[in-house]
Amino acid sequence: EMVQGFKVEQPQGKVVVTAGETITLTCTVSGDRPVIGPVKWLKGWGSGNETVYADTGSFPRVTRAVSGSNTDFSISISNAQPEDDGIYYCVKFRRTVTADVDEVFQRGKGTEVSLHGSTLVPIMVAAAVLLFLLLVLCIVFCMYRRKRRDKAKRPCPASPAAVGNFSPTPKLCETNGTPRSKVLDTETSHQPSQQSSKEDNDIQYADLQLLPQAAGHRRSPGTACSEYASVMVAAK
């Protein structure tokens, strides 16, 4: 039997909250004649529905917004969790006289509950993993660059003994044909600044020789070491 003018109103179409917040679901009933039977909140519809709130039973996280009201059956769900996602229905039941059971009399249109935290947490975890991998790659790259730089700065091996009448001088190392450092003539660098005109007319001869690779030493590709010596000859 339908009761004229009775209506279950569930105005919220969708509610979006963040994990840990309180979910508030609104439901009111109205009608000219009262209908005997409870009002319950169900999550989902059909055989797999779950009772979220009823006048009897224990529901620790759910409370009535207006306690004891016969028209306002709004509820609050505290500490929202990802598993709270779903569609909630405010349902009016009617007590049957013959079977002494409650049957569905009328229901609201349903309110969809969605949590930000249910999708935000996986995204944050993925971002943290990506940042960690980038940090590891940066550390490996910096170590590789430092190793290459230290290898390039390694000094040349010691030169062998001088050959003939030429006295050995400090070596001049070249990389790809470009001198790394300029070596001053050991004889001319120690001469007095004031010289006679005769000494100014002296002729200097220089000989540049490539040095063989010393045993037990390796050079980087494209690197060669050389030495030179000078001989003073009086001009005629």
TrEMBL record:
Domain Ig-like stretches: 1-90
Going by the UniProt record, its keywords in alphabetical order are: Disulfide bond, Glycoprotein, Immunoglobulin domain, Membrane, Signal, Transmembrane, Transmembrane helix
- State the SMART domains in the record: IG, IGv
Q: Where is this region: Disordered?
A: 167-202
The record's section on Gene3D superfamilies has: Immunoglobulins (2.60.40.10), transmembrane domain of human cd4 (1.20.5.900)
Q: Where is the signal peptide?
A: none
Identification of the protein by name: SHPS1 phosphatase
- Natural source organism: Zapornia atra
